[in-house]
Amino acid sequence: MSTSTASVLNFSAGPAILPPPVLEQARADILDLDGTGIGVMEHSHRGAAFTKVIEEAKDNCRRLGDIPDDFEILFLQGGATSMFALIPMNLLAAGQRADYIHTGAWTKKAIEDARILGDVHLAWDGTDGGFRSLPADDELDLPGGARYTYYCSNNTIYGTMWSTPPRSDGWLICDMSSEMFSRPIDWTRHDLVYAGAQKNLGPAGVTLVIIRRELLEQSRRDLPAMFRFDQHADKGSCLNTPPTFGIHVMGLVFKWILEQGGLEAMHQRNLDKAALIYDAIDASGFYRGHADTDCRSTMNITFTCPNAELDAKFLETATARGMMNLKGHRSVGGLRASTYNAFPAEGCRQLAELMGEFASANG
User: Fold this and answer.
1) DSSP label of 337
2) pLDDT at 6
3) Quick one: 27 exposed, middle or buried, by C-beta within 10 A (0-12, 13-18, 19+)?
4) Which of 56, 137, 171, 294 is the most buried (most CB within 10 A)?
5) Domain for residue 91, yes or no?
6) What is the count of structural domains for the chain?
7) What pLDDT score was predicted for residue 331?
């Protein structure tokens, strides 16, 4: 069984490419889940068939991420954007402060929502530098006494990625939406990690939240049930009808990554893929990468040609070769290659070859 997009290289930043074996299995399960004669989207979320789906997804998530037992795994709705509000709603009471590290568009949105709900201190602000870099620990302004420190580990728009977690004051909270399970996670440093599924884990509509139980115990109780992390944990992510199909696909993605060798193997694969394109940028004397070299993302590679006209010409040339969705975000311009876990290494090689040919012809 083959996919209809086999001849297309999808560099989309999200919703993004999924592994073909996952799509093939999901296609079959839409009609008949595990021989039940009923499709996955038609099963009751409280029935035995879907209970098996969600429990296997949780088990494989814990196994894949090497997640300690003192963390709870939640499958929520509302996307990563809902977490911008839910985190301070649950964890920031009156008189408490949170430190935010501002590294791009997604932290900007998180900061704006958090300021509606509580006291926010900017530990670092990369606006003036065009979000090309990330701060060293000694550049962070952490006055002490914060409830938590918040950061985004990978920025899809600007193409930056933290190599190691920042130092923190209080709990460390991370938005990993565009790189979740692309590499191992240091759980000794983190207390809450979350990710919208549609970039590296599955279809849009599911938010994976991995939260230390201590935070659940200390979260606010004066909120409507749907907005309370502890209520979702108590009900096994089935406080209301969850996004059943999205959870199923995410579970299939967890299995697929395990079959590829797990996070260590996936990390090396992603480093090798990204190096093909970064080497093409650095060797060309033609392209300019947006992110500083010491904080380049392995998931979202951002670069420009010498001018906007050549950017447009490159896009036209790439599209003619079946390389789709390489246009950069409107706030940055230029080009962006998103090379998530499911993106094939051969696609990175083909893009690097095209970049070399294009630079030679237009330099």
Assistant:
1) E
2) 59
3) exposed
4) 171
5) yes
6) 2
7) 86
pLDDT given for residue 263 in this prediction: 98
Distance CA 61, CA 67 (A): 8
**Closest alpha carbon to 223 in 115, 97, 96, 88:** 88
Q: Please name every residue paired with 173 in a beta bridge, in sequence order, or none if there are none.
A: 150, 192
The CATH number given to whatever domain includes residue 43 is 3.40.640.10
Mean pLDDT of the chain: 96
Name the residues annotated as catalytic: 106, 175, 199
- How far is residue 357 from each of residues 155, 314, 322, 336, 352, measured CA to CA in Å? 29, 11, 16, 18, 9
What amino acid occupies position 188?
T
**Per-position DSSP letters for 242-309, written without gaps between them:** --HHHHHHHHHHHHHHHHTTHHHHHHHHHHHHHHHHHHHHHHHSS-EESS-GGGB-SSEEEEE-SSHH
pLDDT in tens, 224-254: 999 999 999 999 999 999 999 999 999 999 9
Instruction: Indicate if 223 and 320 belong to the same structural domain.
Output: no
287 in a domain, yes or no?
Answer: yes
Residue 7 lies in a domain: no
Q: Are 256 and 19 in contact (CB under 8 A)?
A: yes
- In this structure, are 139 and 84 located in the same domain? yes
d(CA 100, CA 265): 32
Dump pLDDT digits (tens) for 191-225. Answer: 999 999 999 999 999 999 999 999 999 999 999 99
The answer to whether the pTM exceeds 0.90 is yes
Residue finishing a domain among 208, 233, 259? 259
Q: What is the mean pLDDT of residues 45-74?
A: 98
Among 239, 259, 279, which residue terminates a domain? 259
Angle of CA points 144, 145, 148, to nearest 5°: 100
pLDDT band, very low/low/confident/very high, at 7 (cuts 50, 70, 90): confident
Q: What CATH number is associated with residue 287? A: 3.90.1150.10
309-355, pLDDT tens digit by residue?
999 999 999 999 999 999 999 989 999 999 999 999 999 999 999 99
DSSP conformational letter for 135: -
